[in-house]
Amino acid sequence: MIEKRRTRDLPQINERIRFPQIRVIDTDGTQLGIMAPNEALRIAEEKELDLVLLSDKAEPPVCRIMNYGKYKFEQEKKAREAKKNQHTADVKEVKMRYKIEEHDYQVRVNQAERFLKSGDKVKATITFRGREIQHSDLAEELLQRMATDLQELAEVQQAPKKEGRNMMMLLSPKK
Asked: Whole-prediction pTM value?
């Protein structure tokens, strides 16, 4: 059982290719035609290269004669490059109070705009202290105003909702 699982994870090269007929492609990209795997393996060994299965979904399956070590290295290199270039979306937070002054509000909107342009999500939070929680309608109006001010850059992912002494809203950048 364990032995069978171990061979399944290994790449299908050389003797591990188990099909009655395969389509073989040479190193320079020319097709050598459809043949038995042992015949293709003999050709690959003559060139001191490997027979690598490229597509088992095709009819018949497609194999290529190549240097497998070099091919594997190129694949890993491409994967590293892709990983290096991808951007993970973080959640950035802008905090304010519902009694915020106009200039301070504009600063928060500009911060949120900058975060959205860099591809991050923005969590707008309004904190209540003491009896301020009675004015949650004013806080909701403020969050709605922020959503309309940022509507060309962002879409509301989570509408304003109360969580304890805070009210929050989540904005995500438009695609």
From this structure: 0.54
